[in-house]
Amino acid sequence: MEPNLYHVSFSAFVREFKGQLLGPKLTEKIEILCDSSEEFNLKLFVEAIPHLKQQVIAKPDDVVEWTLKEAPDNEDNIDHFVIIFDSVSQCSYAPSGVDEGQLQSWQSKDGIHVYLHMYSLSIGNSALFCLVKKQLLTPTRTDRAGAASNQLEREMETHRHNYIGTDLNFQLWANHILSSEPHLQEAMAQQGPPIFLA
Fold it and tell me: Residues of the chain with pLDDT > 90: what percent?
């Protein structure tokens, strides 16, 4: 088997919004072995996807909303979430803009960073991310103290004629929904109970 033409090593950082200075650094470097820029994009997509969430789009008049896709589905969409930054030459690259010449120059270079933006690059600053948190991420059902409401638990009780269970099972079902990603909660409330309650 022939060795790969390119071996590129990156430090990876997870970001909530574009331009965020502090954020978690992945403990291990991303190592990509490839023979072409297309293979590089595919392998970068595979490394990035566990850290990405559903894409958010910012619209005028302080409106943010989820896209229809749950998560990026192929390496063509990764440009909406990932920036590659060469800290030595101070240049940023979209993954689709990386060619074989760039891969060659990165082989022995330290200071290459990959910024993985969880909700997409359209979240350009902390003020916009605060809007995302307020409009999309915080629980919509809260009580007067700001805690997640048990209103959902009461809604789950309406399924009592379809499912046999104790009050505790309906509480666990509601808690499971409220502790999941906010953009998935509405769909989860319409589905049946999770397997662990069966």
Answer: 4
